Amino acid sequence: MSFCRGVRQAVTSSFSAALIASTTVFAGTPASCPNTPLSCHNTTAVADTCCFNAPGGLLLQTQFWDSNPPTGPNDSWTVHGLWPDNCDGTYEQYCDPNRQYTNVSAIIAAAGKTELLTYMNKYWKDYQGDDEDFWEHEWDKHGTCISTLEPGCYDKYTPQQEVVAYFQRTVDLYKTLDSYAFLAAKGITPSTTTTYKSENIQKALAEPRGVQVTIRCSKGELNEVWYFYNVRGSVETGSFVPAEPDGAKSNCPADVKYLPKMGTPPSPPTTTKTSSTGTPPTGTSTPGVPFSGRGTLPVTSGGATNGCIISGGTWYTTGTCATYTATASGNGFTLTSSKGKCAVTNNVLTCASTVTDPTVFTAVADKLAYNGVTNFYTASVPTGSVQAPVSVTQQATTLTIGWKSS
User: Which contiguous run of DSSP H or E holds residue 189?
Assistant: First the structure.
């Protein structure tokens, strides 16, 4: 089984996300799957993995209860993801580097799925405040391993339509699994003074579906539930059938705390919003000192701020900015994003897990400098969901990169 929180691996995308127009009509249709067996229930190999999820035939819809810092509404659990397990407790991850995208919100928006994106912004939350990075992680690690969402499974495939299908299906499934209501119906509600028997929590969550669930705790506090399904047909169009867990049903103690959401929600790392009040977390930039601690990299071009550098090192003018960590090194500093360390490789800014020798940058007049020069270049200003590679060799468009502490 997959454990995402605390082990979000920085992975590289060797592919500068297939670019889609600002409005996209998906022409591809998913495979037609009549009379397919239920995943994980076959007795012989099934060749058509566009209609039969394999090897990841056990799908987990996972949810979080984040109490401090709180995420999402006070009376609702939030989405973690949709994970394909291999029917035996093992799983694959990061299955297609060419489809590890860094612009999930733009892909969804370009598909016209504004209602889906609005819902995700409320119920699919990152406890560190970086929802976009969280969504990218879930797709990159888990979504790329769902066989029935492979591009080859679509007739007249439109690039990235399977990404939208993954998030839509996850949200649709989550809407049927109101964990807060399941627990409240049995008198289990958040409390700072009452503890609950873990077996009673499991029973309350299992009863509406007739099968067991897995619950997970952190420091004796309930914070996660996993719902298991087999699928008949594809993930996008098939039927989800409740299934039993394929491993341990709990890591919780006998008596469990179910705390109410409290404290201050995490601030999203954008160029337009300030961080929440209170004591700064470890690693926060020293006030007035550029390129120290954590921050974003806003881009200025043509005399105006326009977008920022996102986690792969590309320039993006819409969506959520990535959070970077600047670490002192020699006479300058290195930069690291969720994708990995950053370096100028073949004259292009790249942040990836494959970077082993990060570039030592400097700051000149509060601007990022490479070899003492603050000018960077792209072929053109990116628009919509387009991401522009950032080069240190002269091209048509000049930009500078600043720092905004978070």
Answer: none
Does the active-site annotation cover 137?
A: no
Q: Which of 132, 136, 137, 142 is catalytic?
A: 142
Q: Using alpha carbons only, what angle is made at residue 342 by residues 340 and 345, rounded to the nearest 5 degrees?
A: 125
Residue 41 is a catalytic residue: no
Could you say which of 132, 136, 138, 162 is catalytic?
138
Among residues 291, 288, 308, 290, which one has the least CA distance to residue 299?
A: 308
Catalytic residue list contains 142? yes
How far apart are the C-alpha atoms of 268 and 273, rounded to whole Å? 7
Which H or E run includes 182? helix 179-184
Per-residue pLDDT of the chain (406 residues), as tens digits, is: 655 554 443 333 333 333 333 345 465 788 888 888 999 999 888 889 999 999 999 999 999 999 999 999 999 999 999 999 999 889 999 999 999 998 899 999 999 999 999 999 999 999 989 999 999 999 999 999 999 999 999 999 999 999 999 999 999 999 999 999 999 999 999 999 999 999 999 999 999 999 999 999 999 999 999 999 999 999 999 999 999 998 888 999 999 999 999 866 666 654 333 333 333 333 333 434 578 888 899 999 988 889 899 988 999 887 678 889 999 988 889 999 988 899 999 999 999 989 999 999 998 888 999 988 899 999 999 987 788 899 999 899 999 999 988 7
Amino acid at 72: G
Q: Are 376 and 391 in contact (CB under 8 A)?
A: yes
What is the value of pTM for the model shown? Answer: 0.65
* Cis amide prior to 382 (ω within 30 degrees): no
The answer to whether 305 touches 400, Cβ cutoff 8 Å, is no
